[in-house]
Amino acid sequence: MTLLDDFLIRAALAGIGLVLAAAPLGCFVVWRRMAYFGDATAHAAILGVALALAFQTSVFGGVLVVSLVMALTVSTLSNRGFAMDTLLGVLAHSALAFGLVAVSFLHGVRVDLMAYLFGDILAVTRADLAVVWGGAALVLVLLWWRWSALLTATLNPDLAHAAGIDPRREQLVLTLALALVVAVAIKVVGALLIAALLIVPAATARAFANTPERMALAAALIGALSVIGGLQASLHYDTPTGPSIVCVAALLFLASSTAQLLLHRRRG
User: Fold this and answer.
1) Residue 69: other Cβ atoms inside 10 A
2) Which helix (H) or strand (E) holds 211?
3) Where residue 133 sits, what CATH number does that domain have?
4) Tens of pLDDT along 25-75?
5) Looking at the domain assignment, is residue 238 inside a domain?
6) How many domains are contained in the chain?
7) Closest CA to 205 of 219, 226, 223
8) Integer angstrom CA distances of residue 208 from 161, 165, 221
9) Which of 20, 68, 89, 144 has its CA 20 to 30 A from that of 135?
10) 3-class DSSP state of 56
């Protein structure tokens, strides 16, 4: 018997691996006000699941391909004058609806929709751990490589152009990273909660950080605390694990926002 034989250890490792990738990426989502962008990409994951099962291929591969197509579609259309909020609303809900309908046409295939919608982190296997940590490593390497250019393009597109940085190329880098995180996260927290795990820890960290790097590190720490706290709450209260993780993250955000508000009042 080894350490990885314990399902709780595997669940914790999977969650921490996911938040390590989601934290810095989530910071860019918050800075660029792309929350709905993450939602649309995540909702497309269900369509990817349906197509993967229909063609009997890897669910991870199917989700990655469809999420990437969705992210590229949104990115392309947004650069052609479409209203971003309306476009994302249409694509997000349409992708989820088409995915759920497509799943209903799969005969002879047992599909646990709840697991794909809300995750099943307690059922993570060693192979899933390898996928999660491999995907997280790729995202972190990609963000580390493009960190300076991504920051410049996010904070000041005009300055980025002057420095020879193409903001559209940097948006493509974020698109690739986001699609990869969605594909990795489908087993851990599910399609409906991926965006929350991207955004909530980053939004919470905003109150404690005065540099982008510190915000990314704080978001990773908050995400890890959410995973551990959510697992403990799920075990103690017998609640769904994925939603419990997001609930803990939301409570940390509430505590952070309250502390920040009280601090401003004292200074005022």
Assistant:
1) 16
2) none
3) 1.10.3470.10
4) 999 989 888 777 778 888 888 889 988 888 888 888 999 899 888 878 877
5) no
6) 1
7) 219
8) 31, 29, 12
9) 89
10) coil
